[in-house]
Specification:
With about 400 residues, the chain is of the alpha+beta class. It has 3 domains: about 160 residues, Alpha-Beta Plaits (2-Layer Sandwich), CATH 3.30.70; about 55 residues, DNA polymerase, domain 1 (Orthogonal Bundle), CATH 1.10.150.20; about 140 residues, DNA polymerase, Y-family, little finger domain (Dna Ligase, domain 1). Helices cover about 40% and strands about 20% of the residues. It has 14 helices and 13 strands. It has a 5-stranded mixed β-sheet with strand order 5-6-1-7-8. Strand 2 and strand 3 form a beta hairpin. Helix 10 crosses helix 11. The longest helix has 21 residues.
């Protein structure tokens, strides 16, 4: 990786309405029509929306029922995830041919790092067009590409000229482009934070970039300087080629929304236990615990906490998850829950315990439960704090 970070060349490739575009490609009757991948039932969710349906306000993660209300003529198509993965492999094969340094974010988007290629600054536009052309030749699908000196700028750029766009942002064009954008363009700034920013008269990225440090600290705490850097288009994150598991998680969508703290904690502990068990099977430890909470209106929030020392103990992971859930409930005391998830990240291999090491609390219990479940099934035995 180049040590001169100001000369980096990072590309973000984002397929246009990927799932929906595949369905339109494969079925000529769908072309030019509002296609929604997902169901229109009471608990169905939109997985992808064609650009024709987006004109009616339909978007991914929207309840299918709401999508149908906004666009009564929408064509609902059942997702074919295995097939989408095959198409995605063809696209990623193109990335692999052109650079060894690429990081997949999902089936339909990735970061590519060309920083180490000699003379790349002189040919990067041609390289971006080559990638778009190769993808179209291979799949008959379009991609939007953003290019910049870092991940943040490249990702924002890829969204500016969709669909089938190409946007390059370097030098002074970065601030000229970012400054008038809403502050919510910066990842991590959601609706709740936007309201707090408005109270200190911050609405655009320029406002964020030029705001007094003390005012931003009141909103973002210890992350204030990082947010201010992002507003200035500064982002030091590396493009990290995939090397095995980055996280391990478990989640559940409930048939009926959870309304009581007791129900939520019971389900959360079950999910923490399932995550920990998966980590133990892979001999991995997590140094970060994450939870995901989705409310009935599909607002989805995530929180994370450090876990030191790193662990795959059900109790350790469950304890951190429960802390974060209680913090979330303090902010949303009356909210119901549609989905809960627990995960761990910052993974590292579990070392063999030394002769004089002390086992982690309840490690023996974890091992016994894992052994029983492996032999008789995952639901045959439960922890006491999971029994209703």
């Amino acid at each position: 990786m180049s040590k001169n970070r100001t000369n980096r060349v990072i590309m973000h490739v984002d397929m246009d309405a990927f799932y929906a575009s595949i369905e339109q490609r494969d079925n000529p009757d769908y072309r030019g029509k509002p296609v929604v991948v997902g169901g229109g039932g009471p608990r169905a969710v939109v997985a992808a929306a064609s650009y024709e349906s987006r004109k009616f306000g339909v978007r991914s993660a929207m309840p299918g029922r709401e999508a149908l209300r906004r666009c009564p003529d929408a064509i609902f198509v059942k997702p074919r995830l295995d097939y989408y993965r095959l198409v995605s492999k063809d696209i990623f094969a193109i990335f692999k041919e052109l650079t060894p340094v690429y990081e997949g974010l999902s089936l339909d988007e990735a970061f590519l790092d060309f920083s180490e290629e000699p003379g790349i600054h002189d040919i990067i536009e041609q390289r971006a067009r080559l990638i778009k052309d190769r993808i179209h030749e291979q799949t008959q699908l379009t991609a939007s590409v953003g290019v910049g000196p870092n991940k943040l700028v490249a990702k924002i750029a890829s969204d500016l000229l969709k669909p089938d766009g190409l946007c390059m942002l370097f030098g002074d064009t970065i601030s000229q482009t970012l400054d008038p954008m809403p502050a919510s363009t910066i990842p991590g700034i959601g609706r709740k934070t936007v309201k707090r920013l408005r109270s200190i008269r911050v609405s655009t990225i320029k406002d964020l970039r030029t705001a007094p440090d003390a005012a931003l600290s009141a909103v973002f705490g210890r992350y204030a300087m990082r947010i201010k850097q992002r507003a200035a288009g500064i982002d030091d994150r590396e493009v990290v080629p995939s090397r095995g598991d980055k996280s391990i998680s478990a989640e559940n969508t409930f048939a009926e929304n959870l309304t009581s703290a007791r129900e939520m904690e019971q389900e959360l502990i079950l999910l923490a236990d399932r995550t920990a068990e998966r980590a133990r099977k892979k001999n991995l430890l997590g140094s970060v615990v994450m939870i995901k909470v989705r409310m009935p209106d599909f607002t989805t929030l995530t929180r994370q906490m450090q876990l030191q020392p790193a662990s795959n103990s059900s109790d350790a992971i469950g304890g951190r998850a429960r802390e974060m859930l209680r913090d979330w409930r303090a902010d949303y005391p009356d909210a119901a829950v549609r989905l809960l998830g627990v995960g761990i990240a910052g993974l590292q291999e579990e070392r063999q315990m030394g002769l004089f090491d002390s086992p982690e609390d309840n490690q023996g219990v974890d091992q016994v439960l894992d052994s029983i479940r492996e032999k008789f099934g995952s639901d045959v035995v439960k922890r006491g704090n999971r029994i209703r």
